[in-house]
Structure formats: C-alpha cells, structure tokens
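Cross-posted from the bioinformatics board.
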Amino acid sequence: MELHDLMRRLHVKNDSKIVLLVADGLGGLPLQPGGKTELETANTPNLDALATAGTLGLSTPVLPGITPGSGPGHLGLFGYDPLQFQIGRGVLEGLGIDFDLGPNDVAIRGNFCTIDAQGNITDRRAGRIASEIGAKLCTKLDQIKVPGVEVFVRPVKEYRLVVVFRAAGLGGNVEDTDPQKTGVPPLAPVARDDASKKTAEIAAAFLKQAREVLKGDAPANFFTMRGIDKKPHIPTFEEIYGLRAAAIAVYPMYRGLARLVSMKVLDAGQTLDDQCSRLAQAWNEFDFFFLHFKYTDSTGEDGNFPAKVERIEQLDAAIPKITGLGPSVLVVTGDHSTPSKMRSHSWHPVPVLISAANCRSDACTSFGEAQCLAGGLGQFPAKYLMSLTMAHAGRLEKFGA
Amino acid sequence: MELHDLMRRLHVKNDSKIVLLVADGLGGLPLQPGGKTELETANTPNLDALATAGTLGLSTPVLPGITPGSGPGHLGLFGYDPLQFQIGRGVLEGLGIDFDLGPNDVAIRGNFCTIDAQGNITDRRAGRIASEIGAKLCTKLDQIKVPGVEVFVRPVKEYRLVVVFRAAGLGGNVEDTDPQKTGVPPLAPVARDDASKKTAEIAAAFLKQAREVLKGDAPANFFTMRGIDKKPHIPTFEEIYGLRAAAIAVYPMYRGLARLVSMKVLDAGQTLDDQCSRLAQAWNEFDFFFLHFKYTDSTGEDGNFPAKVERIEQLDAAIPKITGLGPSVLVVTGDHSTPSKMRSHSWHPVPVLISAANCRSDACTSFGEAQCLAGGLGQFPAKYLMSLTMAHAGRLEKFGA
C-alpha cells in the first residue's frame, strides 16, 4: 500500500509523544434540524481551548455514505485502509473477548440453535439462552478433541460463542453453516478454496461430536458457524511508523483491535481516571498512546442524547490529565458517528481535533461538527489521520528533494 | 494514468494564454495561534483584487501530512502525480545545476570526503571545502576517461558534485557508495538489477582512477556516490495538454524541473522584473508560462517572517505587469508551504488563486490561508490544478455526451 510504503520510507524517530484519544461514536446529529449535536451541546471548555489553538476537521472512516463497524473504524484511525484490511466476523468476535489470536488460528463465530428430531433448525438463537447457560455449554464443547488441531471454545454472550481451531496451514475460507432460516438443517462446512479443505474437515468432525455432546441440552442442542476466518496479515504499527505504541482501552474489542496492529495492550483499569493514571505511568516507555473511551458510543446506541452529552463532558474533564503530561501531539476524534437520534453507528463524518505546536490554526473556537466543517483539515479520509499526526510530531522526513 | 489520458483525450487548442505564477514555499503559519501568516500579513492589493474576482482554494502537494521537496512539489503543479513520477537525488542535483540530462544519462550526486591511509573515511564532507576548491577538483575528475562512456563531472557547491555517465543502455539502479558513517571505507558500487551491472562497472572504474587523481588533495582526497539514477520517463507537457509551454525561472533547479516535462526554458534574467519583461517578449510564442519566484521559500527557510512578507509584497507589485498582458487564466500558488516559524518546507496545504473570466467567484476578498480555506476550490490534490486551469482556459472538451 502506497501510504504505508511512504510512512516506512519517511518516518524518523524523535522524543515526541503522541496521544490518540478516541471517543467511540463521537459524531452526532441534532435532534431537530438546525439544533445542536451532542458534542455541540456539551460544555467542553478544555476541548474548546484545544480547538482554538489547534486545527479541526472531519474524517470519513471508509467512503462517503459508508457506516463502519468498530473494526474498520479503528483500522482507519490507525492509518490502515479499511477496504484493504478486512477482518472476518469470527476474528472480530475473538478479539472482542480478548482471545489472543495467532497466525495459525481460524476463528469462528458460533450461534447456539435449536434443532428438532429431524435435525431441522427450529430456533436460530436457541431462545436467546442466558449467558450463564451459554458459558456452561461452551465448557462442555471445549472438551471435544479433534486429531491434529487444538480447539478452543469460549462464550461471548447469551447464544453467541467463539470457536478457534489452531493448527499450521489451515485456510480460513469456509462457508457459513447457518442456513439463515428455520425448517432446514444446518449446512455442512464447505471450503471455498483448496487451502481451506482441511479446515472444513476439522469443522465437520467438530460439529459431529458437538451434536452428540449437546443433544440433551435443548433449546441449545446444536450450534451454527458463521464468519469463519483467519486474522489477516497486517503490518505492525511499529514497522510502518517506527512508533512504540500502547493501547489503554477498557473494552476487550478495542484491546483486540490494537493487538491486531501489534500495539502493546496495557492494563487500563475500569474508568477514564484509571486510564489516565496508566497513561502517566507508561509515559516514558512509549511514543504513541491509543486511549479508548467507550461510553459516547453506548449512550448514542441507547438513543440517550443527554447521557451522551454527559459522557462528552466527562471526557472533557479528563483532558487536563492528558495535556498535563505535555504531549507533542494530542488528537481527539471518534472511530465513527453514533447519533443518539439514530440509535446506531452512522456514516456521518467524524469530528477531528489536532493539537500541536505547528498546527495551522483556523478560525474555530470550539469542538463541534459545525466548527469542524470550517476547520483547517477539511474533510479527509480517516486513513490519513496518522500521516497528519506523524507530520505534526515532526516524525516524517521530506518526500523527494 | 487516468488523469493524463483524460487530458490527452479532452484537450483542445485555442488562443488563450495561461500564466502559472509559482511563489516557492508560499504557504505559511502564524507565529502565534490565531495570528496571521506571512501571506495574510503582507499588503497585497493586487492579489486581493484577483482573489475578489477569482476563486481560491488550498492544494495538497502529495498526500495529507507529507512534506514535499521541490521536485514533487512542482511535478504536482504541472499535473503529474508526484507518487507516480519519482525523481532520484542524482537527477535532481543535475537539474539543479542546469545540466541537460538526456535519456542515456545516469546522474550521480557526489560528496567529496576524506580518507585515511587505510582507505577509511574520516570526514564524509571533506571539511566542507570551499566551492572554489570543489570546482577545481571537479575539473581534474572531468579529465578521467572510461572506455565506452562519456563522463561529465560538475561542481555543485562546497563538497557536492554531480557525475554523469552517458552511454546507451545504462541502467540507473545502483547502490550508494556512501556508507553513511566514518571509520569504514566507501562501499563498492553494486547494481540492483542486471540492466545496471554495466553502470556499476563504469562507476567502479571511474572511482579507481578518481582515487589516484585525488590522492594528494586532502582533505578532499576521495568522493562518495549517492542517489545514482536516470531521468524517469515523463510524458511531455505538450503531449498531455496540447500547450506550448515556456518556463521563466531564475534558479537552475526550477528550469531543470520544467525541462523534465519538456517545457521550453527561456532566459529569465536575474529579477522578477526581468522575468516579467521576458514574459511580455515571449507572449505570442507560447500558450502557457511557468513563472517561478524563489524568495518566498528562501526567506521562509531562513526563518525570517518579515522578509518573507516583504518578498510577497514584491511579488504583489509585479502582478500588474502580468495582468497587463491580458492572460486568460492567471494562477498564483506555491509548490509547498515553507513557514518561517518552522524554517523548512512543511506539509500544510498551499494557497491557490485562479483568476479567469469563468471563475465561480466565492466570498473571498483577499489572498491568504484562512480565506483560501473558505474558497470555492476547496482543498484538493495539487495534481488537479492543471485540469482546473485547462478548464478555465476553455481548453477542455466535455467528457462524454
């Protein structure tokens, strides 16, 4: 990829410290046309001070109109084109439970389901069993042995589980066994290429035993497989940027995404305060810190506008703890928008704030979508955030003479 | 390349005259956040009048965050993607001393160095010898004969020189001989591909003789080779745009860059006044004129904010001499930013002004970075400046029916 090759070629090392503060789902919408978004409604004196001296803009996570999941959203922020580096559902599910996927692992998202005496599916989610039941069934499935492969079965939540097959040379290109409807039996796992034939055989052998193991456990008396995939080959953050990078994230999914690009994942504690303390502690050991704040997204998904406003104000209150450390570059942004009005992720461009000594400051005096639209960074693909960040940190040499 | 193919297909000829006035390193930064840049500080009544009637914008020379050298900066302005057309250091150095590189030439940047009795380098820059000494040593080296190849040795400045090997079929892919450290001998020239083996042999034969020739000339008793390269194949400006193009530049580097795309290089004299007179003289012979003004960059590199402001005012004063000729399109821009605050080229977007009859004029009333940010051209990759210019000159047909 051209952008990464440029970064490899131009990056230099220096003593600068970079903080990327990601408020998940930061971008929003006004409840009424002409009104204010969550970010514009929030009282954010610290962010506004950064906005005044720094530069604002709006990033497009994938392409205009495309709503990203957490995976593509974060990969974009880390400077990886989310269309080039795609991550299977099984892998994301594994990352989401902090499972440390290696290069020999095939990850599968499983759904417990109910089958009848004829083997036809009667409920694709097994009556949404409680998480405790799902966990017990996973413990049983985890005992299954298939020759020549290590098998891991881990619960996610309710009827969802992750299965991992670990063996050298397994391909990750196998069709789902979930037929996406009831009244028919689950499909057999079918390889889409030669390299995945062994994987399909292992999956079939595993499913055969699973049917026996689960047969008395109705409604969850079987499970289907979806999103069978391997972790893609992703060049490391350090190799591309020459940065020693640390992730300080409370939620497993974001630790997993950081691990995917080989950031060092630090113990983040439970709160933003914990995260800031960890940041201070680790300050001298790393060049780059990815701090993840989840609650701007979850309140947006709940459709709770005032709660999202409050979470943004909580984030604002933590800013002095970060700026107090004297970062050379502080970037505050989101991985996508999550307007509470829509109760979901959305495609709307995402507010970006870069604070650094050599910013070309713009006329903006507060951090919000309308101001970002007039910001000096303009609207740009999220994958360029890292080249901009590296530039502001003085970590890129001139291109050509 | 898609953009060039479009230009080839759509361009038409007419009587329009286009002037591209490049103020090198034009973009800047305020010394304090919220302050004014050099361009905003300068009193520029003529440029402001053009800005009022015309359209402004900001261009990104390469990619967001990437700081370009003069080569990529100018190629972008000429409509060549600087990532696609990359120019080696040896070639740029040759262009920079007005050496007319042909298709059979391999250009090499040389550094005089000091070696001890064991042949180890003790000073990679030979004590930064005076230019006169460097020039005398080059005259000696220029006498060296290598069978089957023409050799040219030319001084650049102080310890820097250019060596050119001219022969059919020479590859340009040879490793540097500069080991980048002292205490070790220079490296032997090693070909990176079969086509460059002969070049490496010639370089070795030349270096063997050079060692003899220079042995009594300590501290400059040898030299190392860097950036060994051929001029890349670049389609001509006239072939792409159908424009008879002339370059009026005082400094050799910019004449060289114009020559690279096969513009006709005119005698520019020494001053902006000289350049404007030359422009008037040549007005009927060409369709397109590239005028280059160096001093906005050099004052920026000196970190001299008021001097850069003064140079911009000097440029402004020359505008009536250009507009007096009645150009159909006048573009005023830079090849990159050189903020005096940073004393170097930078990645910040570059102010662009297009003045033409069919501009969609915007709300801007002066030429400066903040106004450009609100300008009608928005922020765009520099490589599109030429298609915009051609459009405003009425030189592009409709695409599709």
